[in-house]
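Key result, reporting period 2: structure in, sequence out.
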């Protein structure tokens, strides 16, 4: 009998929507969808193999997520055909079944194995082995399935068990590393990410193979009742959310991306409250579930590792002081009742930071319980504060503060920081919750002290840190304003008010308070100037110098800026941004110390004349070697109207220098040529000398990614061709996308500042990025008879935050020109 299943995927989607609407639980939804898939697969199997196939040697098994009954509307359907032996008839039946499923458009992954080969195949591939652990009967021979259950499955669990457990632990470590060892991501992956479904699977694989635990009741005996509660609640929530993601995206999707937050919260029945939006509530719920899974996973990992890879435990209890001891390489409380005293709780964390030893499970639970009983209005003693400052001056600041946050003690000690827990704010570039961003900033700064740290090249002279306690305290408190500010883009002001109240509770000297207040108040200043202002402009250095006042403040703000920016997301603070920040720091330090620029030594008459022709800003921006190279490029203008050089920089970017005779629209021609080539421009500096000489320096970020053997010559030729042909430049057509996903999350803005600089007008905008945007902006300015003197192009992900220094007829734009530019730029940016 032929079963028409051609409408199968839409039926799954419709059913999923209906079940979500009726508020069915996650496992109920996926089990119901799985039953439909089972029925579908069974009908196809028996239609081809025949109704008597259950007496033959072929069985169809559901494996992987399908085997675990975790089917969502667009999930892959993982099948395994298993037989006692390989023969022509069986192979033909398998082939016909597969072709039938493919012809109907069903998304399947499959394997065909012989019983005798199944274990061998699984032992060679970790993914195959874990997928087969969850195999489930769908159709075919019961006797083959019994053979699988009784002979194959035990071997999968226990043969070479130590290697298998090691593979599970290694897989967990690898996956977690890919997500910065954090589940507090603004767009978490709820399948492979930390605390996600794969971690729940890993808990049970380890429990079965390493600990021989088969049920939640047995897990409770080993880990306590909280373990099963964590897993059950998380599993229900994650499965339900995953189905919502499939429905929203109309495809397979495991990432809770920004675009799905609002609709997913609505589908889950979550509503706004007076304080929080529904998406924020949903994400907070998700983080709690992920945290619970992560804690249980680490408990199971610890038990498994100790049982199969453990060292000989030292059962001697080594007393540390009257309150705490070391047992089995873990910190324990001599008397749990001592934790009723807040001073002893803080002392535990001081010992944690000093010894590098972990808390025993019992002590950690006790610390968490006591912390939750502490009143947010509790007045802590000087001894308590002293313990906290000892932590900030230790060599284990990040790990200790992380553990204090995990046990809720940090929330009670600084309630203003507690408001940041799981806080989701939709702001540019950030990929973590506010509390997680703060802790990562502390981690990154602490990491600079390691000799092989990637960022140590710019910071090696700062360690050991001066005023370490104050610097870490400032980082910990730098974003507290986001927990109370209605407008998060003004959180510095709100945080500054809250900061004074916090510092009044701490026994700090007046000069120490002022230092922390300065750092928190100005924590974004150096990054804003380095990344959105021209560091070669005197006003930029002057503004920073005026704020910091002295070298000590400059050094501290430099380190804090690195910590803050490096914790935005893994790709945000790259070598290019590090070099910009370092350049601003170096020039400001020279300014504060009164160091004068060294005189340039000209090796010949031609170079001396070139130096005399070029503006002071150019001479102050580059060293002698760079100036000499540019002179040789300009010297070629005697033979050629345009000359080009290309040089890869140590910070990963590539500088393209163009020397030419000045003319209207020169920069537009160069930008058009580079846009045509697919190069991503991140900076443009224009230097116009006497006698009409122009040296333009364009920095691009993706040269290495696009490079091929003839590319340098092609780029040079294209620049020369575009510079010589204005018409071709102006007619450059670029397709523009109709929609950008970031539009609703971040407000666009455009601003023209005619007061910050004495010589130029500053244009700044913040909009969704698109191909050809820089070219279109340059074209508008060209049409308005406006020259770009320099620009800083900040493009991260889908967002463009660009700054242009402008002149018209060698001076700032007048009021009429400002309005004209503003309206025309808006037409381009908001179209």
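The corresponding designed sequence is given below.
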């Amino acid at each position: 009998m032929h079963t028409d299943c051609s409408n199968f995927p839409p039926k799954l989607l419709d059913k999923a929507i209906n079940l979500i609407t009726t508020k069915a639980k996650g496992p109920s939804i996926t089990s119901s969808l799985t039953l439909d898939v089972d029925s579908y697969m069974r009908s196809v199997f028996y239609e081809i193999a025949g109704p008597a196939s259950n007496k033959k040697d072929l069985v169809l098994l559901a494996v992987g997520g399908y085997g675990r009954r975790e089917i969502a509307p667009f999930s892959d359907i993982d099948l395994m055909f298993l037989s006692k032996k390989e023969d022509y008839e069986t192979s033909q039946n398998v082939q016909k079944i597969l072709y039938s499923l493919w012809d109907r458009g069903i998304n399947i992954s499959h394997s065909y194995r012989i019983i005798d080969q199944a274990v061998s195949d699984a032992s060679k591939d970790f993914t195959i082995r874990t997928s087969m652990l969850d195999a489930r009967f769908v159709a075919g021979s019961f006797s083959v399935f019994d053979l699988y259950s009784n002979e194959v499955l035990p071997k999968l669990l226990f043969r070479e068990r130590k290697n298998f457990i090691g593979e599970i632990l290694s897989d967990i470590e690898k996956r977690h590393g890919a997500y910065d060892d954090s589940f507090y991501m603004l767009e978490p992956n709820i399948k492979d990410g930390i605390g996600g479904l794969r971690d729940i699977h890993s808990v049970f694989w380890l429990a079965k193979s390493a600990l021989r635990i088969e049920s939640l009741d047995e897990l409770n005996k080993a880990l306590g009742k909280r373990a099963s509660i964590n897993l059950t609640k998380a599993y229900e929530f994650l499965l339900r959310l995953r189905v919502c993601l499939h429905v929203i995206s109309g495809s397979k999707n495991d990432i809770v991306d920004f675009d799905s937050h609002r609709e997913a919260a609505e589908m889950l029945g979550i509503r706004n409250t007076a304080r929080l939006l529904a998406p924020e509530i949903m994400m907070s719920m998700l983080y709690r579930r992920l945290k619970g899974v992560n804690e249980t996973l680490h408990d199971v990992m610890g038990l498994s590792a100790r049982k199969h890879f453990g060292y000989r435990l030292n059962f001697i209890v080594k007393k540390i002081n009257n309150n705490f001891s070391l047992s089995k390489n873990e910190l324990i409380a001599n008397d749990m009742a001592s934790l009723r005293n807040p001073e002893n709780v803080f002392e535990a964390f001081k010992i944690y930071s000093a010894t590098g030893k972990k808390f025993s499970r019992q002590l950690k639970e006790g610390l968490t319980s006591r912390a939750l009983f502490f009143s947010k209005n509790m007045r802590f003693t000087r001894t308590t504060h002293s313990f906290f400052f000892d932590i900030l001056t230790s060599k284990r600041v990040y790990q200790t503060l992380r553990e204090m946050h995990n046990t809720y003690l940090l929330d009670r000690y600084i309630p203003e920081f507690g408001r940041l827990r799981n806080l989701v704010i939709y702001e540019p570039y950030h990929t973590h919750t506010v509390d997680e961003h703060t802790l990562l900033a502390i981690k990154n700064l602490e990491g600079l002290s390691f000799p092989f740290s990637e960022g140590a090249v710019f910071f090696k002279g700062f360690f050991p840190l001066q005023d370490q306690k104050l610097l870490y305290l400032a980082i910990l408190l730098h974003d507290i304003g986001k927990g109370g500010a209605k407008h998060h883009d003004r959180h510095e002001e709100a945080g500054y008010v809250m900061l004074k109240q916090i510092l009044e509770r701490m026994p700090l000297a007046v000069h120490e308070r002022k230092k922390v207040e300065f750092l928190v108040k100005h924590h974004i200043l150096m990054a804003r100037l380095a990344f959105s202002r021209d560091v070669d402009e005197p006003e930029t250095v002057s503004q920073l110098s005026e704020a910091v006042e002295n070298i000590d403040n400059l050094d501290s703000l430099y380190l804090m800026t690195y910590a803050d920016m490096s914790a935005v997301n893994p790709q945000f603070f790259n070598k290019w941004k590090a070099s910009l920040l370092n350049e601003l720091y170096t020039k400001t330090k020279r300014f504060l110390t009164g160091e004068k620029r060294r005189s340039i030594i000209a090796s010949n008459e031609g170079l001396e004349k070139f130096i005399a022709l070029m503006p002071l800003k150019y001479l102050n921006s580059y060293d002698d070697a760079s100036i000499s190279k540019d002179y040789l490029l300009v010297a070629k203008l005697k033979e050629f109207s345009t000359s080009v050089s290309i040089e890869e920089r140590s910070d990963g970017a590539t500088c393209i220098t163009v020397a030419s005779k000045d003319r209207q629209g020169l920069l537009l021609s160069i930008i058009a040529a580079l846009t045509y080539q697919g190069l991503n421009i991140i900076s443009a500096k224009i230097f116009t000398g006497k006698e009409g000489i122009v040296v333009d320096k364009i920095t691009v970020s993706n040269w290495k990614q696009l490079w091929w053997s003839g590319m340098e010559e092609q780029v040079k030729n294209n620049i020369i061709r575009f510079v010589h042909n204005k018409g071709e430049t102006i007619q450059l057509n670029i397709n523009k996308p109709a929609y950008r996903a970031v539009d609703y999350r971040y407000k666009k803005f455009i601003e023209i500042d005619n007061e910050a600089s004495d010589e130029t007008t500053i244009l700044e905008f913040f909009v969704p990025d698109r191909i050809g945007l820089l070219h279109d902006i340059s074209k508008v300015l060209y049409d308005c008879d406006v020259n770009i003197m320099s620009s800083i192009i900040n493009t991260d992900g889908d967002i463009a935050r660009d700054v242009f220094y402008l002149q018209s007829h060698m001076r700032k734009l007048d009021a009429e020109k400002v309005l004209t530019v503003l309206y025309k730029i808006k037409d381009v940016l908001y179209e």
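The radius of gyration is 32 Å. The first strand starts at residue 58 and ends at 62. This case is discussed further under Risks and Mitigation.
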